[in-house]
Specification:
Length: 332
């Protein structure tokens, strides 16, 4: 029983460094305080932002810290009467795993405003793969102005990432013609299974030549999940008057020597999406819709591998080696 439980297991990032700095520890169970709820974590998706935080690239993070910018589970105790014990909830962002401890644990103490109550029959490992990934994918497509029945052409850069595959699944259901990039030819079949029409191997050079063979005028839309290294090239690839949405940072946060007037072609639009825009109540309706589409078989989430909390070091090494095709999930 929770009332008699004093401690919990958590993967604690003890300092900046390699995967080995994640240590499984027995830590005090957080005490519920005003405005917060204690969530029994049933699953947490892994994200590259956690990898960068672990490496020391989040200057505001003070170690030791329990990482994890998302989780799903049930309410164990709450100060909010609308969140009774046993309610299934999801949470993303809002400084989880940065300013306060996140989802790499058996329990997480989270702000009430961050919790998204969800009704679902999905198993935990599938539900855990959805919040950060599908909210980012859906929000990015919204930023691009994509609607059901859309017949435009969409290029997804970073197609084997979890968000890339989620975006492909949604876009395919909407009716767009899609192309997606991968750095490894061996992952092409997995990308096609996600609903992509054309797979392009990105060897680090411009995609223009291979892209023009399928779309001579270029794509109407580009969802760039690679980010800093490819954003300027994406602005060159999209047709004049098209839109590029940068929603990922697989290659880092900053674009060196970026000159908007010189680098954004006339009439072309550059926008962005960050999952923090869909945290809490703002994202609840969107996530519930995603859950229904997954339950109905419309969206096909790709879970590459499920790890136990005890294997968090292996999970981070797997992520750091870019071995995954789709989402990684950890279960406490």
């Amino acid at each position: 029983m929770l009332n008699s439980q004093q401690t919990m297991r958590a993967a604690v990032c003890v300092r900046a460094g390699g995967p080995e700095v994640l240590e499984i520890r027995e830590v005090p169970l957080p005490a519920v305080r005003d405005g917060w709820s204690l969530v029994r974590v049933e699953g947490a998706g892994l994200n590259r932002s956690e990898l960068r935080t672990r490496q020391g690239h989040s200057p505001s993070v003070i170690f030791p810290r329990v990482l994890g910018i998302e989780c799903v589970g049930t309410v164990a105790a709450s100060t909010d009467p609308s969140l009774p014990e046993g309610t299934t909830v999801a949470a993303v962002m809002g400084e989880m795993g940065r300013e306060f401890d996140g989802g790499y644990a058996e329990y997480a103490l989270l702000p009430n405003a961050l919790l998204m109550p969800i009704t679902t029959t999905l198993p935990w490992e599938i539900l855990a793969a959805l919040p950060e990934t599908y909210l980012t994918a859906q929000g990015s497509l919204d930023a691009l102005g994509v609607m059901p029945g859309d017949r435009r052409r969409l290029l997804i850069r970073g197609g084997t990432s979890s968000v890339g595959m989620a975006a492909a699944s949604i876009a395919s259901g909407y009716g767009l013609e899609t192309a997606a990039t991968t750095r490894r030819q061996s992952k092409a079949d997995a990308v096609k299974t996600a609903g992509v029409d054309h797979v392009l191997v990105d060897d680090g050079k411009s995609l223009a030549a291979s892209l023009r063979t399928i779309w001579p005028d270029g794509p109407d839309l580009v969802l760039d999940l690679v980010g800093a290294r490819t954003a300027v090239d994406s602005l060159r690839l999209v047709r004049r008057g098209g839109t590029v949405c940068v929603a990922g940072s697989l290659s880092g946060w900053l674009i060196p020597d970026f000159e908007p007037i010189a680098m954004i072609p006339y009439g072309t639009k550059l926008t962005s999406f960050h999952s923090d825009n869909f945290k809490g109540s703002v994202g609840t309706t969107v996530l519930q819709r995603v859950v229904r589409e997954v339950e109905g078989g419309v969206y096909r989430p790709n879970v590459d591998r499920v790890f136990d909390l005890d294997d968090i070091v292996k999970a981070h090494q797997y992520m750091e080696n870019n071995e995954a095709t789709g989402k990684l999930v950890v279960l406490p």
